[in-house]
Task: structure prediction
Amino acid sequence: MNTPKLASTPERVLQRLDWQVIRRLDGLLQGDYRSLFYGYGIDFADLREYQPGDDIRYIDWNVTARMDTPYVRQYVEDREIIAWFLLDLSPSVDFGMQQHQKRAVLTDFVATVARLLTRHGNRVGAIFANGGSAIERTIPARGGRNQVLRLVNDLMKQPPLERAPFTDLTPLIRGGLNGIKSRSLIFLISDFISEPGWEQALSLLNQRHEVLAVRVWDPREIDIPDIGPVFIEDAETGEQMYLNTHDKKFRQRFKEAALRREANLAQSFKRAGVDVLSISTEEDLVRAIVRFAVLRRQRRR
Result:
């Protein structure tokens, strides 16, 4: 992903994204941002018999069982979206090359989506967590460009953590469960390097809100390059280890273990019932968002 190093001010970050990302998205999506957010902002209106092509997620199974024929719920859209960003800022999010860290991807994504939403009169808020047992900060949902600048400013000022216990995403997700009262569009943004067990909380959150998981990752976390003997340090615990990356068998074992983690993570998202946007630090942000919009549009058919 061609993500420049974070600019020195929130205003410059937003100006860069307006020119390099949002204008391109406007052209590629032609203003159809509902393809990103289609499941949110709807109130129940009526029931009708299922017709071929209907979204099976809207089947009312209780009514279907009573009537012995499939029925789907119909909805009408709300005018305003309330969106929340649940942000994992644990030490592993600072992994990556200097100009391509996962935190830079996270910041660009938050600023882009917040800008898209607020310029259409919607409100955005955020919950910050550092991977520990408590929520670090909450920014109430508000609208306008100044709110986007505040989000970017707080992200830029959030200092990287040098050490932390193993990350647990459950407190961040439960912070959203307990703190967000109105039905909202929620972006859970993380690298999902976490202690297990967060899937249950995510499933509960998805029952109350429209939840999109946004996973930021670095290719070197899956396929370690051949760079010779190195010392590596665990970003979460600070534990150091000597590795010889010339060893082909070691690189293969590393990749196989990483792919197993990928498969387990995919299953976790599936069990929680949420859609996932996966963004690499080396991927163009516009292409990633458009790819996600196309996939969600196809799911509606």
Observations:
- The chain has two domains: 10-38+78-300, 42-77.
- Residues 10-38+78-300 form a domain with the Rossmann fold fold (CATH 3.40.50.410).
- Residues 1-7 have pLDDT under 50 and may be disordered.
- The longest strand covers residues 42-49.
